Amino acid sequence: MKKRKKRKMTTVYLMMGVVVLSLVIGLLVHYQLTAKQTAVKEPVTQEKEEKKEEIKEETKDEPVQEEDEQQVEEVQNEEEPVNEEEPVVEQAPVVEDPVYEEPVQEVPIYTPPALSAEFSDPYSLLVVANKKYALDYYFEPTDLRVVNATGNRTHYLRDCAASALETMFVAAAQEGITLVTCSSYRSASYQASLYNNYVAMYGTATADTISARPGYSDHQTGLAADIGDHDQATVFTQAMENTVEGQWLYAHAHEYGFILRYPKGKEWITGYSFEPWHYRYVGVEYATAIYNVSPDCTLEEYFGIEGGDYAY
Ligand SMILES: [Zn+2]
């Protein structure tokens, strides 16, 4: 009995062992299979993915080229607007600059009339000699003559201006006003000596406010006269403004064709200090028209001619 039991037990153990072994083997096989499947699957998926990527790359390559072209086109398209934009940005200040310079560009507004023969012809009654526009250095009017009026010495003016001055002095005398001619036509060489003396005395900056450089003087036109009071006490001084002679000239000179050439407060346009003694012949018509604008209207303002300081 014991032997049978032992046999049964051993067979049971063997069966159990077989079952366990088969289970273990089954598990191992299953594991290996699944491992193989995954190992097989992985390369497949890798290959597929690689193929996909290749396809993508292939498909990409073409569009990439297109994109490149497109990009180039876009870049070109972008560059164009960029070019448009950049100049716009660059042009903006360029456009703005002239806007800011517009006051400066008022200069050309003055320039055209000055360039016209009417203002550049030295024989015109409207000829302009200021710090922007010079006469020919050697210009000397051919119709200069001695002025037959009271003067501190012999004076010369162009015939028309001399006649007008003589008439004016007579008219003033009839009202008890004695006018005296103190300066008239000056050649450029004489102006040079005057100017150089002022430079030696006061320096260039000051000299330029009271004396013209040779070639730039209103006196070289033969149409300008410096007029003093009866005893010349205030001649060449701004005190002349308050003398009866100064006041008479200020009120009546235009009736004889003369304008106050360097009025008070117009230094910025004439380039010179107020000179209540300096009168310039332009003819009765224009002298009256200018006076009617204002007794202090300048030749430059009336005709829109550039004035002010020297350009250099
Ligand atoms: Zn003068």
CATH topology-level name of the largest domain: Muramoyl-pentapeptide Carboxypeptidase, domain 2
Number of domains: 2
Topology, number of strands: 6
Rounded to an integer, what's the Rg over CA atoms?
52 Å
Q: Can you tell me about this structure?
A:
The chain is of the alpha+beta class and 312 residues long. It has two domains: 107 residues; 188 residues, Muramoyl-pentapeptide Carboxypeptidase, domain 2, CATH 3.30.1380. Helix content is 59%, strand content 7%. The protein is built from nine helices and six strands. The strands form two sheets. It has a four-stranded antiparallel beta sheet. α4 crosses α5. The N and C termini lie far apart (145 Å). About 26% of the residues have low confidence. The site of zinc ion (ZN) has 5 residues, from β4.
